[in-house]
Design brief:
single chain, Nucleotidyltransferase, domain 5, 5-stranded mixed sheet, 10 helices, 10 strands, about 20% strand
Length: about 350
């Protein structure tokens, strides 16, 4: 198959991402650009869907121009356009999908609708060295906490998932309880580094449940009760609570992930999603993987959050596999889209 140049567009929530990926052996990721709306949404304590959609409209063309300039490529060279079809915010998804489909019609190239979580699952393939199929994937983000067996592009088996709050959601809600601004997950992790290990003991929900499912809502509630018990935690007390929370959530994620690796008989674990950037989680997984004699792969930190590079990559891999390619024009977004239906 001749080399293909794929444009990737991500607009599922509050990041606008554009990237160019070439399937040429010497190509790979040629350029990418990202705009985050965090500062805009901080004032409201969470993502406002209407504001997110409007901001995607403002950002998508300038980001595309930047990526073309940085890569030295032109629109006429594109062979296909990949975009996030779902899951995500309906309005935000529509911005990226409409732009992608309209541009594809104008250029006479096909489009590749991509599942957002598939992009995250495949994002470590952008690293060097990349994992090889098959592998176990721990996907931990603000909206999803899942363990998957990934046999190949489009071949995903769900092994376990959260029954309530996702790991990233629990981080952000706990951060809010400690007075940190939205989104507080990263700030909470930084605060936890100043905490005393074991000073605050919190539950490890479903740690010994015998399956690979998660539950983090009760852990968040335990933090709320601890904060109420103390009254107004000072800086050190807040750091101790943050440390207790982070240790609890990492304990659960690590134990479940390593059990999935052991039960599968595979020797590779891929970690993806925003929480995959957490330093303590990476440290603990690396230590456990060393003991178990298996390998752990992470995306680069810049690709842990939502980004266009992972969508361009997923689109390129699907293009090569001949799947999910359609003539440009009519389209629909899928705000709720189970990965099992890919």
């Amino acid at each position: 198959m001749p080399a293909m140049l794929i444009l990737g567009i991500e607009s599922s929530c509050d990041e606008t991402g554009i990237a160019l990926y070439s399937t040429d052996p010497g190509g790979g990721l040629l350029a990418h650009a990202l705009h985050s709306q965090i500062l805009m949404h901080q004032e409201y304590g969470g993502v406002v869907p209407e504001l997110a959609s409007r901001d995607h409209i403002r950002r998508v063309v300038p980001l595309l121009r930047k990526v073309l300039t940085d890569s030295g490529r032109s629109l006429k060279e594109l062979d296909a356009i990949a975009y996030t079809q779902g899951p995500g915010l309906a309005g935000a998804l529509l911005v990226g999908a409409a732009f992608a489909e309209g541009l594809a019609v104008a250029l006479g190239v096909p489009t590749i609708p991509v599942h957002h979580l598939e992009g995250h699952l495949l994002s470590p393939l952008l690293s060097d060295p990349p994992p090889q199929f098959p592998f176990i994937a721990l996907l931990v983000s603000g909206g999803h906490s899942q363990l998957m067996r990934v046999a190949g592009v489009g071949d995903y088996q769900l092994l376990g998932e959260t029954l309530d709050d996702a790991a990233g959601e629990a981080f952000d809600k706990t951060a809010k309880l400690l007075g940190l601004p939205y989104p507080g997950g990263a700030a909470l992790a930084e605060m936890a580094e100043r905490g005393t290990p074991g000073a605050v003991k919190l539950p490890r929900p479903m740690l010994n449940s015998g399956d690979l499912d998660f539950s983090f809502s009760g852990l968040k509630t335990a933090v709320m009760l601890k904060v109420r018990e103390i009254g107004s935690p000072d800086a050190q007390q807040s750091a101790d609570i943050a440390r207790g929370f982070e240790d609890a959530i990492v304990d659960v994620l690590v134990k479940k992930a390593m059990r999935a690796v052991k039960d599968s008989g595979l020797r590779q674990l891929v970690v993806a999603g925003g929480v995959g950037a957490n330093r303590e989680l990476r440290r603990r997984l690396d230590a456990e993987a060393h003991i178990a004699r298996c390998s752990v792969f992470y995306p680069k930190l810049e690709f842990c959050t939502d980004n266009g590079a992972m969508i361009a990559l997923a689109g390129a891999l699907r293009f090569q596999a001949g799947a999910s390619i359609k003539p440009a024009g009519a389209f629909a977004v899928r705000p709720r889209w189970p990965l099992a239906e890919v």
